[in-house]
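TL;DR need structure tokens for one chain.
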Amino acid sequence: MTATPVSRPCPVCGDAEAADYLLKGGLRLVRCRQCGMVYASPVPEEFVSGTYYDRLGADYYLSPAKLESDFADVRFERELRLFRAHCARGAVLDVGCSTGAFLYQLNKRFPSSYDLVGADASGPALDYAAARGLRVIRGAFPVVDFAGEIFDAVTFWAVLEHLNDPRAFLDKAWSVLKPQGLCFALVPNLQSLAARLLGGRYRYFYPQHLNYFTRKTLLRLVEARFTVVASTCTHFNPVVVWQDWRGRGKDVSEQARAQLLKRTTAYKQNTWLGPVKALYRFVETALSRLSLADNLVVVLRKK
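>> reply
TL;DR here they are.
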């Protein structure tokens, strides 16, 4: 029997009044009348409970193309550069760590600087992370008992957009951070050039994404618990824009997403593409300054 979809209030301000924003297949996005946050409602129960990611773990997160790309040295270049600029050492908790690729790269590059822990709800992905020597914590993050353990930094790389209640995750992060501890969050940018050009054709308007942040709504979500140390806009994938324009909004399978990630990772590693990569960096920098790049990133300090 199919579970009844779950209606949601606004994940930022809690208000229940919202107007239709976008309809795409079975996905219904609404805009909060109070704060302007765009979010999915109703949503399948498996996204609310997190069981979807446990089920998806082996087919997507452990696919050869996804693993090869996630563990490539170029995969987390931007995130690592930002993280190191603000946190040079200490205990780090990566929430939504999946197979542990970010923490793997952090340890590989700075092997004596950090004590690393990964947390997730996806059993198969965590099994893989544990097999690579990473300490992992399983289950729904907001209710995990850390038995007094605290951290210098908590990271949410492309996680908050997937959560039914992102505020509960941020509250939990606040509770396990040391005084003045740091929280890093990256989310898709609803006001990106790609989202503006493509509208409903954009592949990242899809059921797994429950929350669609602008800089304003993201900052409103975090303001109760954190002060903003830095904020930026980063990443741009012209291949996605081209493919989605041509595809006219057709569903993109997880396998196709993994293959594209593998392809773009290969582009980054190809030394013959130096001039092209230089042009790409110029375009990405320009879009970032205009707040039109694909992702929003914030560095937060515990109040």
